[in-house]
From TrEMBL:
<dbReference type="GO" id="GO:0005783">
    <property type="term" value="C:endoplasmic reticulum"/>
</dbReference>
<dbReference type="GO" id="GO:0006506">
    <property type="term" value="P:GPI anchor biosynthetic process"/>
</dbReference>
<dbReference type="InterPro" id="IPR003737">
    <property type="entry name" value="GlcNAc_PI_deacetylase-related"/>
</dbReference>
<protein>
    <recommendedName>
        <fullName>N-acetylglucosaminylphosphatidylinositol deacetylase</fullName>
        <ecNumber>3.5.1.89</ecNumber>
    </recommendedName>
</protein>
<dbReference type="InterPro" id="IPR024078">
    <property type="entry name" value="LmbE-like_dom_sf"/>
</dbReference>
<dbReference type="GO" id="GO:0000225">
    <property type="term" value="F:N-acetylglucosaminylphosphatidylinositol deacetylase activity"/>
</dbReference>
<comment type="similarity">
    <text>Belongs to the PIGL family.</text>
</comment>
<dbReference type="Pfam" id="PF02585">
    <property type="entry name" value="PIG-L"/>
</dbReference>
<dbReference type="GO" id="GO:0016020">
    <property type="term" value="C:membrane"/>
</dbReference>
Amino acid sequence: SGNYYNQGETRKKELEQSCGVLGIPAADVTVIDHRDLPDSPTVEWDTQLLATLVLKHIEAKNINLVVTFDAGGVSGHPNHIALYTAVRYSVLPGGVTGQWGACVWCCVLVLQSVSLLRKYLSFLDLPLSCLLPRDVLFILTEEETQQAKRAMWCHRSQLLWFRHLYVLFSRYMVVNSLSLL
């Protein structure tokens, strides 16, 4: 939950509502609520701790595909970048021990960060996304885009003015380029 601005419980409920819009049952939603991982751009998360928690969750739920941020964190948010670093740490030799990595039983896709200009081109970014290198290009239909927007609107506590712009104009609401880790 992170409990940023003491909104941890509110954010948990918003996440469950958002997942419900996406067809994900509340029973399949897990919030890792750890005091050493506060939702704060000023706190550096411990890579090994986060990697261990993520790996335990993946093994416990028998997850075979993880989609995470890339090294840019899409928005540059330190917590997003820390998650990428932890996942990367988990799949590299010498990192957290487990059977994870190299698509043996768990593939990892990272969402590619794009420039600010491209980020807000919405569907107009599609031709460029088709031309640039990537392993997976995920394009939402109009119906899926509307569903994704409804899911985003569930996060009311986080909908500051710039996030309204994100929901309305972000290419991530329409097209996502991903690479294998």
